[in-house]
Amino acid sequence: MRVKSLSLTFANGLKLFDGIDFSVDEGERVAIIGRNGAGKSTLLRAALGMIPRSKSEGEWLYGEPMHNISGRKRRRLLCQVGFIHQRHNLVPRATALTNVIHGAMVRYHPSFRVWNQALAPAHLRDEGMELLERVGLADRALNRASALSGGQSQRVAIARALMQRPKLVIADEPVASLDPVAGEEVMELFSRLVAEQNSTLIFVSHHLPHAVHYADRILGVRDGRIDLNCAADAKSIEELGNIYGDNDDDDD
Amino acid sequence: MTTTSPPTRLHSFKPINFAFGVAGLALLIASFNAIEFDIFEILEGGPRLTRLLGQMWPLNFPAVPRLLDQLWITFLMAICGTSLGIVISLPLVLFAARNLTPHPIVRFVVRTFISFCRTVPDLIWALIFVIVVGLGPIAGALAIMMDSIGFLGKFFSEASEEQDVGPQEAIKAMGGSRLDVAMSVVLPSAMPAFTSDALFAMEKAVRASVILGLVGAGGIGMELKVSMDLFQYETAAMIILLIFCLVVAVEQVSNRLRGAIIGGH
Q1: Can you give the residue range of the structural domain that contains B259?
Q2: ipTM value of the model?
Q3: Cross-chain Cβ contact A91/B177 below 8 Å
């Protein structure tokens, strides 16, 4: 999997990336680190064509250029990517099980769609329950997402992403909104489940020990370019910390 | 020592604002002049009002069973019209809401249609449908339907636009289509707002359905017009009382339901 000469220009003419290149091997776990505003999340979103009113060029996702392709084709490619957001982004009024089953709705496009656990076929409900069990929330299946704690919500979001059976999982600071204990639990669970599915993993993290522990390789982003690309065990945490320093012109 | 002085008291006072104020006042005075508003003339009408009220008494109780029949039809006409309005407005949201529309031009066209439904008064819709489908409650129900589309199309779309974008982005990021976003995120999230709006439309429709009868669109309004035309004021008074009871009852039930829905949220 390869990102080739990715460029992003916003509608106001601001150019954030100019020809970014990196590749990720199948089954590899990659952490992206960098200062706030360095463009980590934007890089992932741009590569998925998720930034409206901007112009981006380059290739992404199995050699397919993500831009200037039809909406339908783009959606078919996005189906293969499980995206875990910083804030879980569950549907608050839907139950935990319904939220998990949403992950399956794109697997069958366009033959049929599932929007609610009550209307979902039996095998999808079973699969959803199994995933909820694996994230330890089977007993909360019929609780609304709004009734779950931050850590529980993020675990449901992980189950939803895995329900897609994604080839690639992208996590944008998955534990940033959680307390350290819950964050550690979620990160551990998340990394284990992704490994069990043999999916490729790219995650953004501000927590350097997480990056070192859960990734095979680390990419450092600074000023809209890749400043660091090394194996996770090649540098000490102090050395990795340099990516955050010596930079006063914070661009956003 | 440096001190920061407070801002001037009339910091937003500008000549242009003053000019608008004067113009508004002039318009107000001109309006009252144009309708020849005369408080004494109104007071002179007092005795006539007393006479009318006297003629309305005693209320025509024997007519109640027949009137209840007509009131029931009025109520059902409101239910049918609002339901049709809801059924048509919901899919329109897919095109009229900013977060769901396939293209801004589509949104503009659909919103224009919705505005048109809303700006044409229900009485005029009723006149049109009386010509198209003939006298009777069907014309009334269709008029209410058009009015409900205008009202609900706008409010449903706005409720849809107000929903949190996070979950919508999540569904889009996993390859979901507009319809997926609408059905899995917007519909469940906006359901309390949709229900509350629909109940408002219902109340509005019950009040409107009474008036629509006046132009021949069936129901109790037709009875009211006939009894007024025939100077049967005691029947007219009975009808007004029944309408009042119906409107209050519908408002009460609707308020309870709305409270339960918002409370359950």
Answers
A1: 64-264
A2: 0.84
A3: no
